[in-house]
Structure formats: structure tokens, C-alpha cells
């Protein structure tokens, strides 16, 4: 009995050692069934975990036999095991095709073993088979005892899988955040970075993980327009007094992106063990702030000028007796300033309505040539240093559109051509067909536009930062309105310009859908 007990302990230790060497469920099940078959001297065996995937492993069985067993899991003797939750043995006569060269009957002895959880639920089913010798009651009891050890291993494995599942979920969330996050230890060594951090700064390619502080700091600051303030910020966050939160803004060179980074100390047991940095792309927010600043600046300047004129002239009319001719002149000036003020306000409102999609259009057939002629007649009254011409190179000048909005569009284009040609010159309007669509060019001989400003000229409140142009008034909304009206009519506005070299500003209005009568 002592020798038998010693052998049982050896087999049990061998089983436990085998299943403790891996955290992969499939590998663990393979190890279990292989060692059980060896311990119980079985020629064949299978173990099936009662999880959603029915994870299983077998020894000495064909793939067809395994699938047949899984298919009949709740219909055969396994159902008895699910009900009794006790090991039992049965004897089955093998069919002729499994007897080999044996002429007489051949029997298979099958041992069905449950693997029970602490709550007495079946976690797995084990079936062991051997030919000739039947399983004894002692072997069945030993198999049940081994099943308890297998249950403990499967529970640990389930806990590991659950923890791994949570870890992967947290990692997925961590990597899909829109912020770049990095965790450094007390020496500033990178311990953790998410996907956004690696993407923005090339941290993965440059090997930032586990990189010493001085090296990744140098690489990061080299990407910044002015890296010195950022370097000082990082030094303070990692090695300085542990402030609860500190924030700074920096700009990336290549992407021209405005970034914000904040740092917060991390504590464990009341002691600081590291620092977390969170980098955010605030380019759009910075652009909105710039536009707000431009709006305030534009409104304060552009609205104050006509208001000052109106108030000054009104004060003269109220406090000083004037000849009727002088009064008429002042009233005319007040009316003009009021119209200018109304036009500025209308521009603001138009842009807001168009961008919000609330602008209404009255669609009708419109001939563009009469509109151009009326606009030119109006512009001629305000200048004697410009010449105007309309070149019509197509007979198809009729489109479907909103007459008033089209007049607003081309008025802005022609007025800009005049305004930004302070030394005069020719303003040429050309109508022609290209690729089955109607195009309208408005060309001048004015100041032109620098190449770096071309991508931004249709943005709200944008004006070229140049002293020659800053002296010329304007809200920076005209071309924004032009673009929105063109878009509503299925068209596109493009610009071609050269600064100070035969300076020409040309707007090509291309109707993407040809408007024919």
C-alpha cells in the first residue's frame, strides 16, 4: 500500500508539473491528456473543456473520432457523467474494423472522469480508453483525485485568460486614444507608450521604449520649432517638485501642428514612482482661437471706422449750422458709411448662414454676361486708373443659379481685383468653355499673392500679412463667401498668382456640372 501510494504521488506530481509549464489553454489540455494516458495506461483519451469554444485535446484518436465525440457530447454516456458528476467505467465491444487481426470479440474499457469546479460545476470531461484490462475502482478514484488538481489548474488558467482579455481590451483602448501617452520612471526612462505617441513622434522606429531620458528628450526636442522650453518643462516634470499638473504648448516643425502636453506625477503608497505625459494635438483649437482673435480685431477695426465717420458727421450736423449744400454732402457721406457698415454686417451673417447650411437659394436661368457688365459699370464709378474688359468666348453663358448670389460672387471678385491693384491696371473678365463646362476668369495686374498664402486665402478672416496689403481694408470674408456660393452652385474657385512678377491674380470659376439651356 505504501508503494502504491508513493507511485500515486509521483504520477500526481508529474501531472501537476506538466500542466504548470504553460499558460496556453490548448497546450495545457494536451499536456493533461498525454500525462493522464501515461499514468492510467490508456491507449486513447480525450479532454473537453466546457467553455464556449469547447476547447479540447486528444491522444491516439483520429480527427473524425474527435469530431464525432464532440457532436454527441450530450447524447451518449457523457450525459450520464454530466448528471452524476462521478467517475465511472464501461466496457464496449469494438466493431470489426477496429479489431485488427483479432478474430474473436475485443473490448474497450472506457473511464469517464468529471473535472469539477469548487462550486461543483463540470469544467471539463475526460474519457480514457484501454484494451483488455478494465479500470479498477481504485483507478477511478485516483482519476477523480487527479481531476481535482486539473480543476485548480484550469481555474488559474481561466483567471489568467480573463486578466489577459482585460489587458488586451485596456491596451486597445490605450492605443486608440487621440492623445499620445507616455509613462516614465523616476529616472525618466520610457516605460510605456501608446500607439498615437509612436505614430506622432516615430517613437517605435527610434526605439524610445526603455530609452534613457537624455536620448528620447533630445529626439523629441529636435522635432519642435523651439525645443528649449519643452526640454525645461520635461526636466521639471521628471526631476522637479511633484506638482499636481503642469501644462505647456509647443509646435512640431514638419507637421506644423500645435501640440499641448501636460504632465502629472504618479504615486503608489504615497511615494512618487513615475510621471505620465499626455500630448494632445490642438491645431484645430489653436486655429479657432486665431480666428476668434482675427474676428475681434477685424470687427473692432472695420466696424469702428464707418461708425466713427457717421458719429462725427452727425455731431457736426447737430451742433453746427451748415449751408444746405454742405448738409447734403454730409448726409450723403453718412448714407455711404451706413451702407458700408450694413455690407460688413451682411458679410458676417452670410458666412454664418452658408457654413451652417441655412442659406436659401432661388434657382432660375441666369445669363452671366449682363451681370458682369453691370458690375463693371458700378466699379468704373469708383476708379479712373483701371481699365475693364469682358471677353466672351462662348455662346453658352446661361446657367441655372441664384441671380443675387451670383452677383454677390462676381462683385467680390471684381472688387478684389480693383482693391488689390492700388496702382491701377487692366481688369479682364473672360468667359469660355473647357471640358464641357463654363469657366469665368477674373484677372488683374495688382499685388499678387505669395505662394505660401495661396492655400489659406479662402479661410475666414485670412489676410496676407504684408504691409502693402494691410493698408488696404477688408474683413477677410469676401473670398470665403465666394467659395461657399460657388460650392452651392456645383462649382469651384481656383487661384493662380505670382507675387511682384507680372503680378496677376486669376480666379477660375469652373462649373463641375455644365449648365446648359
What does this protein structure show overall?
The chain has 517 residues and is an alpha+beta fold. The strands form 4 sheets. A 5-stranded antiparallel beta sheet has the order 2-1-5-4-3, with helices on both faces. A 5-stranded antiparallel beta sheet has the order 7-6-10-9-8, sandwiched between helices. The chain has helices at 2-19, 25-39, 63-71, 77-84, 137-175, 195-201, 213-222, 227-239, 283-302, 304-319, 324-356, 368-380, 403-419, 467-470, 478-488, and strands at 44-49, 56-59, 88-93, 107-116, 122-131, 180-184, 190-193, 246-251, 258-268, 271-281, 364-367, 386-392, 398-401, 425-434, 437-444, 491-498, 504-511. It is elongated, with a radius of gyration of 42 Å. The protein has 4 domains: 2-172, GAF domain (Beta-Lactamase, 2-Layer Sandwich); 180-281, Beta-Lactamase (2-Layer Sandwich); 285-356, Helix Hairpins, CATH 1.10.287; 364-511, Histidine kinase-like ATPase, C-terminal domain (Heat Shock Protein 90). Residues 501-517 have low confidence and may be disordered.
Write down the overall mean pLDDT: 81
Largest beta-sheet details? 5 strands, antiparallel
Beta-strand portion reads 15-25%
Q: How far apart are the termini?
A: 109 Å
Count of DSSP strands: 17
- The assigned structural class equals alpha+beta
What's the Cα radius of gyration? 42 Å
CATH superfamily of the largest domain: GAF domain
Briefly characterize the structure.
With 517 residues, the chain is of the alpha+beta class. The chain has four domains: 2-172, GAF domain (Beta-Lactamase); 180-281, PAS domain (Beta-Lactamase), CATH 3.30.450.20; 285-356, Helix Hairpins; 364-511, Histidine kinase-like ATPase, C-terminal domain (Heat Shock Protein 90, 2-Layer Sandwich), CATH 3.30.565. The chain is built from 15 helices and 17 strands.
